[in-house]
Design a protein that fits this description.
The chain is of the alpha+beta class. The protein is built from eight helices and 16 strands. Helix 5 packs parallel to helix 8 and helix 7 runs antiparallel to helix 8.
């Protein structure tokens, strides 16, 4: 086995709920639609997407496996075009501790809110203390796109449409609020990394949904050490190479990815799309999810009858090949040869062409759906194709060990 003697990698010993988020105003995206993005890091690595009828609006929600009637929702969008994701902000309440109400508040918001103003009223009326400490990223069908740094008693809004707040049209958050106690900041290394990534994406004209959802979770340059894991790519899959794997934008604890693409002014709110990677993003793929009249989703990303997502579970099986150590700190060292190598046989290298085809066909289906969003035939047919295409190709990957 080859082990690299590298610089000490900082491991966050605080909470593992270490998400990374970006929001982009529609004034700077290629198609004029706003975006909110989240890498979800959590102790519960098995996630799925479900459709829920809220008090006012039906919504697509990212939830923990087996949460078929969820108390907590960790991102999603509703049929009114309202969308929300979050990152925990451990410095907002003054004690550095975690809270239990973030997912509850997002569930309530998805079921009740249509606009940013609705969300603000919801926060104002929730019983205090709210038991939250989050950077909530929110967009709506009117073009609203903002972060709300929210603690137990109040919030501060950061509007991506405000050129003074977001001169380049985008903002980022990891696990601290800019208005909080910076002695309690968490996720600084990832904030440094996503800052560099977004500057490059902006400069190169890549502020679009397909680039961000497929590249942020596979960005391998460390924000603090500046080491790019791709620079250490092994020759072949058999050249076992364990690499320290902590505080990259993707982590061992990354369980899913969601990028919600809003709508242009005057466009139907039903055209809002949740581009979702269900599972660990180095072993699973992105696809578009929308509201259909029947509530249909691809069967591989929703409840498979056991309370799990088929794709997420298969991705976890593939992930276990990369984290194959049986002794010691097994989640901090990744055999990168399994994921990518110079021969091109790594798991990530083999799923990226699958993802490209899924994304391409998804864009074609969305083009038809956006013309008549109440007629979801194109998307439902696409979902059927995705189920067959991914199941067949993943069976090949899983059998080749």
């Amino acid at each position: 086995m080859a082990f690299f003697a590298l610089a000490v990698m900082l491991v966050e010993v605080k909470p593992v709920l270490a998400c990374t988020s970006v929001i982009v105003s529609g004034r700077v995206t290629k198609d004029g639609r706003p975006l909110i993005y989240k890498n979800r890091d959590t102790r519960i690595l098995s996630n799925m997407t479900i459709v829920v009828q809220g008090p006012r609006y039906r919504y697509l929600g990212l939830v923990n496996a087996k949460d078929t009637i969820p108390l907590d929702v960790w991102g999603g969008h509703n049929e009114a075009g309202f969308a929300i994701v979050n990152t925990a902000a451990y410095n907002l309440n003054g004690n550095g501790g975690d809270t239990d109400g973030d997912g509850i508040l997002m569930r309530k918001a998805l079921g009740l809110c249509a606009t940013l103003e609705d969300f603000e009223r919801l926060i104002d009326t929730v019983k205090k203390p709210m038991d939250v400490n989050s950077n909530f990223a929110v967009l709506d069908a009117q073009g609203g796109c903002a972060y709300y740094e929210t603690g137990n008693y109040s919030f501060v809004k950061f509007d991506a449409n405000d050129t003074l707040v977001a001169p380049d049209g985008y903002l980022m958050r990891t696990n601290f609020g800019t208005t909080g106690n910076h002695k309690l900041d968490v996720g600084v290394e990832r904030y440094q990394a996503i800052t560099v990534f977004m500057k490059e994406a902006c400069r190169e004209g890549h502020l679009d949904h397909d680039y961000l959802v497929t590249h942020i979770p596979r960005y391998m340059t460390h924000g603090l050490t500046k080491m790019n894991i791709y620079d250490f790519m092994p020759e072949t899959e058999s050249d076992t190479t364990f690499f320290p794997f902590a505080d990259y934008t993707v982590r061992y604890s990354t369980a899913s990815v969601i990028l919600v693409q809003g709508v242009r002014p005057g466009e139907s709110p039903l055209n809002t799309v949740s581009w979702t990677i269900m599972g660990w993003p180095l072993t699973t793929i992105a696809m578009p999810l929308v509201h259909t009249p029947s509530g249909k989703l691809p069967s591989i990303v929703t409840n498979d009858g056991t309370g799990h997502s088929w794709l997420c579970e298969k991705g976890l099986e593939l992930k276990s090949r990369a984290f194959s150590l049986k002794r010691g700190n097994t989640t901090s060292y990744c055999n990168i040869a399994v994921l990518f190598n110079k021969k091109g046989t790594g798991i990530l290298q083999r799923i990226l062409p699958l993802e490209a085809e899924v994304m391409r066909r998804g864009e074609e289906a969305l083009k038809e759906f956006r013309k008549h969003p109440k007629d979801a035939a194109s998307m439902e047919s696409y979902y059927d194709w995705v189920d067959t295409f991914i199941r067949e190709n993943y069976r090949v990957l899983l059998e080749e060990e």
